[in-house]
Amino acid sequence: MIRELLDKLTGRRKSRFGKRVEIGPATHRIDLSLVDGRAISVVSTLKNAGYEAYIVGGAVRDLLLGLRPKDFDVATNATPEQVKALFRRAFIIGRRFRIVHVVFGRGREHEVIEVSTFRAHLDSADAEHVSGNERTAKSQLAGVKHAVDASGRVLRDNVWGPQHEDAARRDFSINAMYYDPQSQIVVDYHNGFADAQKRVLRMIGDAAARYREDPVRIIRATRFAAKLAHLGFKLDAKTSRPLAALKGLLADVPQSRLFDEMLKLLQTGHGQASVEQLKKLGLAQGIYPLLDLAVQRAQEPFMAAALQDTDRRVAEGKPVAPSFLLACLLWQDVRALWQQRTAQGEHTHPALQAAIDEVFDARIGDVSGRGRLAADMREIWMMQPRFEKRTGASCHTLAEQPRFRAGLDFLQLRAANGEVPEMLADWWTQFAQSGQGVREDLIAQARAEQQRAPRSKARKPKAAAPAASPASPADSASPGPAAAGEAALPQAAPADGAAPAKKRRRRRKPAGGAPETASAPAAHATPSRQPPAAE
User: So which residues are the catalytic ones?
Assistant: First the structure.
């Protein structure tokens, strides 16, 4: 209360919340056709119910720059419960910030419009102070609307307020503008429109204090600088100066939130630029272990190609999956352990499985390494030795796998970097794009190529040893040099010259009584490039 009284007396309160400026369509020149119709529908529904409603944040920034926004957020003075009551498919989510997701469509084609309530701008000194974080202080946070931890990081921010206070609590000036698609008016409190024209990224208020409120803003500053660099945007000096010194604050942020921010840096279309910004701002190490590894390996051919491919797909409007990019990031570790195990005599598939488990334990831990993400990464990796076999029905089976497309893209990256022959990746690419008849021709072609390949010379049998001492029971129980089913070597003649009786050794049947076939592969064996013995 004393702080607010002093602000009123000194006029500081007015400057903190800025001055409302309305910018008309003749000045901002936003193309209304770039605005998502579902976002307009949400705004209209809220306004028809008597509430204020605006498109807000990064969508307004992109519209001012002539870009088509990827996501649309809406801000309103309606509470989350009031918003939810207006829409058939709406869900209140979040604890730190309670917001509403209004869902349009179903399945993969669904779209979410995020609706947030105007929040009050409260000083950290007036908030509830808790000892701990989101996990350790759950009991203290129960029922609390505004709380901070010992470092000043906001743990709860659910106190509603007017629009001008909501604008002051946002991070960058270019993200603190509001657009009404009905009147086509842009509302600006902190010179965001002027900063957009000057191509400046500026934090609202004292930058160091804002980073302490939410250390993830350190990563957001880097991401925006990378995303908008091609348009000429640069971080304001006061905004960039505290970044490196305050990165230690990120140690208190939940790992799951850092993981999500890492994915936004690397797979939203500017992964390579994000890596360069991290280096430039002194943030190459110490943010998040997997992100540190990505920066470290970004210049290596395989990871550089993966980042470039991800950026290209986003630019072309194609989907990208975090499992694929992480599979590329950790492939170096998996491959090294896999080769080490096979060199020690382990079979290909068990060795690869064990290598994957080791890498998950060492690199990913408990964040996302045991969920759907890890299952997709494992499937991409386990497909790689299966691509070596191009004959039989296994080709069709492999092509029907849910993650086949991702596994093939991974194979193509490996071929481009010399890990496997380009011919192999080209063959599978053609197989994936062809119909049944062409596929059978490709398999026949691959079989013919294998038959023309030079065969390895047969091993010569070892000469029979002279008379030997009787074998011990342990020796007789263990198989000799000849595998089961092969003809035994002839025995030495007895001393009296009598010919030994010939013994015919019966072929053993496989377990289960099934007849043995020469073409049945052993379990977990590496697919052979040689044709089957009987075809």
Answer: 71, 73, 171
